[in-house]
Amino acid sequence: MVDAFETPAPGPAVEVPAPAAAPPPSSDKQPGMVQGRREPAVNSLRGGLGLYHTTLADVGGRHTVRVRLHTDFFRKSGFIYDSSEHGADEQGRVRGTVNIGYSPFKWGELFMAVHSQASRNARAQPGRQDPVNQFALGDLDFGIKGAHRFVKGGAIGLGGQLGIGLLSGTSRLLTDKVNFNIDFLFTLDVRYLTKKQVPVRFSTNIGWILDNSGKLIDFEKFTDATSREVSRFALGVAPSRVRMRYGFDFPVRLGKEGKFGLDPIVELAWDVATAEMTAFRQEGATPSPLPRSSLWGTVGLRANVIAGLHLDAAVDIGMVSPNFEYGPPVAPWQVILGLGWSIDPNPVVKEVPAPASNEPPPAPAVVEGRVVGQVLDSTGAPVPGAKVRFPGAASNAILTDDQGNFTSYRFPEGQVAIQVELANKATKDATADIKAGEDTQITITMDVANTPPVGMLDGAFTDEAGAPILVTLSVSGQGVDEPFTSTDGGLIRLELPAGDYFAIARAPGFEDKSVRFTVTPGEQMTTVKESLKRAVPVETPLVSGKGKKLRLKKAIKYTSASGVDDKSAPLIEQLAAFLNTHPEYEEIEIGVHTDDRGSPKQRSSERADAVRSALLAKGVSPDRVTANGYGDNSPVAVNLTAAGRAKNNRTVIKVTRYKGETAAPSKPPKAPKASKKKAEEPAAPPP
Question: How many CB atoms lie within 10 A of CB 25?
Fold first, then answer.
């Protein structure tokens, strides 16, 4: 970046009175400003700075802190249960949130929220399986938001936010049940686009949330659909979903200097489920007009009554509830009451016009000059990282950038000495004539190429008995970071830039060996001789191998979502350990077969992929494992009985490449003529 310098025009100086300066525009008159600071604002119900459910593409004033408390509640008869024999239920719910936000950067915001809720469902249903009162205490949300406002100082805001949520069951916080969300944010503030600053603002959010609340408890244990649904509603259990928010608000500033504010708010919230919760499906239930959608509107008023204190009240009006498998019912109404405090530590700055002055303008300041140059080597290539010094004028060196460019400190007019040093210690002296108020351009060409000195590494690697072994040596240092492979006789020779290095020698069946060495320049070699210790075999009692045969002593079990069940984790760990310590099993196939229910092909493929992913997570190379789902093409029993279906649900581990030899590829045999494939039915949980 080159500074602009001012030089006085030639000719005699003439003193003239300075004109009275026009007062700068007061920031109080700018949209969204109060007494020289950003207008105070508070966070949304569960996220960053915003309305009730809609987040603004804004982060507020820098270093501002926002604290908000709110509660919402509703009560209704016949909300979930209404029986002609036993009467209707009485459903009530009270929720509360503490939300804290902080804006450490001009374009960034951090926020955290703690949520709790209490639900009561009283009904005269016989055999109910849920408690009358249920509590969900201490859900935690953490988030970060970035937003930038542009066009006339802030008319349009664009941003995004990321968040994670730690869920709480009825007793404690469960850190293994985590939600994740991402949202795109847009805000249009009409105040910045109109002369009269019309107080209208439109905001919209669209995002997606990965919701794991369905894992809080085992809902399959409920045999009564009403008890299951009441518990789901009490715990706030919902599926993963797309979230859309649309909000209009009308921020008006009142009173002297705009110290008070009123903000009427109207919002529409629309959630669309992207996952199905089969545990809650109720056959024969009246379908929703929008099966996957939860839809509600909000009307409210927020008042900034004094300084940063906010009071607000609103009503949510339920519009559409989804089908049972796509989410809990939407409350027909709920009242929201909130209290917030926005703390701005920045001092109040009020601009006032400066008094007119008859004093003559000050004399121009003495301006110094700089050296702007480039360093090239003898081949004409730019030299990055060269040290540029100015002996006698400045003590610190300047490093050239990727194109060999540098810009000096400011020096008074006159001659300045320059010294350049390359990485290979080659140096060159030069001079430059500094002119006041100007940049002096200079190109310094070195007499040698910028090649660092090199040396030779000579390495030899053996086992504990002294027998040579082939190793992979991963070398890092002096700009080198890559692996090198030795000969079969364990020998390796490398030409490397002179300096210190760290390396790790690896060989199959041996423990890793750390090596440190220093390469000296010249023809003298640096010698490294190391022996590697054989790795102690890992015990795998559940996995054994003999030749091309690989045997599991237990069957791999799966969850209803076709993932690997936690009960099979020890088996997967031992299979991975066996493969990692037996390189002769160069490639295996995970073949999964299922019964004929639901979507056999999809279910078997998902299970095979889940096993492969679990092995890769334990360090098995991706090149050694393939996954295939064969569906119900190869039954070993009749699918008409539970026992037969259990036999058809199986996982087969086949060795396809052993010690360089290729085993016969796995081909599923054709189904027996007596077995007829059924038409696909809705997916059912695996046995």
Answer: 9
The pTM for the full model equals 0.51
Give kind and range of the element (H or E) at residue 605: helix 600-617
CA dist 79 and 58 (Å) reads: 38
Q: What is the pLDDT of residue 347?
A: 77
Residue 566 has pLDDT above 60, yes or no: yes
Cα–Cα distance, 315 to 651 (Å, whole number):
54
Query: What is the C-alpha to C-alpha distance for residues 274 and 647, in angstroms, rounded to an integer?
Result: 33
Residue 236, phi-psi category: left (phi > 0), alpha (psi -120 to 50), beta (remainder): left
pLDDT of 501 reads: 94
In this prediction, residue 500 carries a pLDDT of 92
- CA separation, residue 462 to residues 511, 513, 525, 657 (Å): 12, 11, 20, 28
Phi, psi of 28 (to 5 degrees): -65, -25
Q: Rounded mean pLDDT of 7-25?
A: 41
Q: Is the dihedral of CA 664, 665, 666, 670 positive or negative?
A: negative
Residue 609: φ, ψ to 5°: -65, -35
Q: Residue 537: what are its φ and ψ, rounded to 5°?
A: -60, 140
Strand partners, 296: 269, 318
Q: Hey, is 43 helix, strand or coil?
A: strand
Q: Let me know: does 71 contact 111? Beta carbons within 8 Å.
A: no
pLDDT digits (tens, 9 = 90+) for 184-209: 999 999 999 999 999 999 999 999 99
CB 65 within 8 A of CB 40: no
Largest CA distance in the chain: 114
